[in-house]
Amino acid sequence: MLKWIKNILSSPKPAGPPKVIKRFDGSEKTITQEVVVSSEGGWLVDVGESQSISLFEIEISDIENCMLTYRADLKSKEVHGQSFLEMWCRIPGRGEFFSKGLQKALKGTNDWASYEVSFYLKRGQQPDLIKLNLAVEGRGKVWIKNIELSYSPFE
C-alpha cells in the first residue's frame, strides 16, 4: 500500500537527457519592447511597476508525456518585490496553463545565476504554443540571457 501511494505522489522519471526545442542568444527581439533593451548578451528589463514581460512564443507540435523546462540566466539590481520565470502552455480545446518559478524568485540585487521552471505534460496533453515570460512583481532591473526551452520525455 505504501509503495502504491509513493508511486502516485512521485514525479514521472525522464527517459533520457533533455532535448532542446529552442535557444535565444540575445540577438532576437522580444515581444514586449517598451521596457526591454539589449544588454550584456541578453536583455535588460527595467520596470517601475508590477507586470509580466512577454519575451518569446514558440509554436510547438507532437510533444506530450514529458517535462518542459524553461531555463535562463538572471541577475538583478534593486528589485523591490520579486521577479521570476513564468511559462504558459496553450493546449487546444483545454485552455492555457502556467508554471511560475516562485520558489526561486529574485529579490534585491543579485549576480548572474541559473534559474528554471518546469511544466509536466501527461499523455494526450499536446500544447501548440509555449509562452516564455519574466514576471516582475514590484519594480527594479532584471537582466536575462541564455534562454532555453527543452523537454525530457517520460519513460
Automatic annotation (TrEMBL):
Q: Which domain of life is it from?
A: Bacteria
Question: What is the protein named?
Answer: Uncharacterized protein
